[in-house]
Amino acid sequence: MSHNSRLRRPYATAAGLGLAALVLALSTTACSTADAICSDGEYPVIAVGGPGSACFPDGEEPSEGYVRYPEGKVPEHVGDTWDTYWESRTVDKDGRTVGLPDGE
Question: Which first-to-last residue range defines the signal peptide (predicted)?
Fold first, then answer.
C-alpha cells in the first residue's frame, strides 16, 4: 500500500505546482490592470498649463483645458516611465512640453 501512495505523490505535486502557477499568473495579470492609468475603453489626457490628468472615453475628444499626451509619451501604468516624466512637466497652450510652474 505504501508503494501506491509513493506513486501518487508526484502527480499530486505536479498538479499542485500547476495550480500555483495558474494562481500566480492570474494574480499578476490582475495587478497589472489595477494600476493602469485609465480603465478599458478610456485614454489618458493631460491638463494644459498645469498639473493634472484625466481619462476620457475612447472616441470622445477631451474637454476644454485638456489635450491628448504627445505621441509616444503617453503613460499607461502608474509609475511607468511616462507617468514619472509628466510629474514635473505639462503642455502649454501651443502643445509644447514645458516644466510645471513653481509650487505645482
Answer: 1-36
